[in-house]
Structure formats: C-alpha cells, structure tokens
Design a protein that fits this description.
By secondary structure, the chain is of the alpha/beta class. It has two domains: 3-62, Orthogonal Bundle (Arc Repressor Mutant, subunit A); 70-261, Rossmann fold. It is 39% helix and 24% strand. It has eleven helices and 15 strands. A seven-stranded parallel beta sheet has the order 6-5-4-9-12-14-15, sandwiched between helices. A three-stranded antiparallel beta sheet has the order 1-3-2. The protein has a three-stranded antiparallel beta sheet with strand order 10-11-13, covered by helices on one side. Helix 11 links the parallel strand 14 and strand 15 (257-261). The longest helix has 15 residues, at 3-17.
Amino acid sequence: MNRTDRLRAILDLLAETGRVEVEEIVERLDVSSATARRDLDALASQQLLTRTRGGATGQSVAYDLPLRYKREQQAPQKLAIAQAASELVPMGAVVGLSGGTTSTAVADALGTRADIAEPSPHHSLTVVTNAINIAAQLIMRPQIRIVVTGGVVQSRSYELVGPYSDVVLEKITMDYAFVGVAGIDPVVGPTVRDEREAAVNGLMARRAEHAVVVADSSKIGRRAFATLGDEGLFDTLITDDGITPDQHRAFEDAGLRVIVARI
C-alpha cells in the first residue's frame, strides 16, 4: 500500500468512530508505529484531523472530508450506482441531488447522457441541488436547467444547509430525489453525521415522488448521528453488488426496493 492509499485508509478509519489510535493503524494497515505517526502528522498538517497522544481525533467536520480526498473511494461502485440511477430518470424530469461523492457521480451520469445533451428548444432535465459543486459541474450543459437551494456553504462538502434551503424546496416538487448518506441500516434507515444536512436532505426527499438512497455497500450497516426522516420516506435503495443476500432481504422486508448495480 503506497502512502496516498494509506492516508485515505486512515481517513476511512477515522470516519468510522471519530478517533483512531496508532496501534489500530499498525494492525489494520500493517505498517510500523513510526510510519503511522508520520501519516497522522501529515494529515494533521492538512487540517484533516487533530493529533492526540497515541492517535488522532476527527475535527468538527472531519467526517465531511473534502471531495478531492473522497471522490476516488469506492469509485467503481459509485459509477455503477450512478449509471443505475440515471437509467431511472426520464427525459423532462425534475431531479433532486444532495451533496456527496455518490450524488456527484449521478450528476456526471446525467450530464453525459446522449439524449439529455440532444439540442432542443426546451430543457431536457431540471436538476435541483444543494451542492454548489454539482451546480458548477452541470452549468456547462445548456439542456439542463439548474436550481440551487439557498443556505450556508459547508466548505468541506460544498453543500448548502440551514433554513434558507427550505424557502426553495418547499415551493417545488420533484420526480426523483437521489440522496447520498453516511450510513444506511434496515431498522434505523439512512443517516448522515450532521443534523443540518439531514434536515435539507429529508426535505428534498419529502418533496419528491420517488426518494432514492444512493449508497455503496460499504455504507450498509453503518449508523451515523442524524436520521433523515420517518420510516417510509425513501422507497428505493441503489447500491452495488457488495450487498449480501441477508442485507438485501432485510431492506426489502423494511419496505425498500433494492436495485443492485453490477460492477
């Protein structure tokens, strides 16, 4: 494992519980204590964690790492999920996209669809998003109308959060909302780590005819701090073929349609 891969792996470990110890890095990544400490110091210098005696803790938004550090994690799975999501969307639809790397991959898939890019006197698609990076990504597609919610920018995830978002979302309806999450559990449902993000994403889901969780299989079984809404708010989960038969069955028993994107 090279250094770049090690740093990403350490950030993944940190995201699981909010803290990581040198001994855990040594055991999980098969490196020396000196290497583990140097890697932690390197991440601390980038303000991605706070060093402690014997390890590190996440900063207040360490779970919401900059997209440049997250976008390659589970990349094949996210691309497959994004393609499956895009295939659900008919021409002329209104689509909500939350922030996050999987939703960004969905935006990519929609933005490169040949039918949507076809010249037309009318917009081929309307995208509603609270992620300024997604808006910037799609603005070069003239056939896609972009609606951006109001709010305060979270600098590490490029998402707009806060009550200003409600002003826009409460006045529109959507055909589909694709929402990325930090974890999804068949009992608790989808969760994220920030209550402000949960509020915006939950409202986006409520304003859509079909609310869809887009989550790679590494998110299955994880529970984060904030739930997104009441049971039954989401009707579909799109994940990759890393989902186990038992997990698949548990989500279907909970009332979710499960679409498995093959890699």
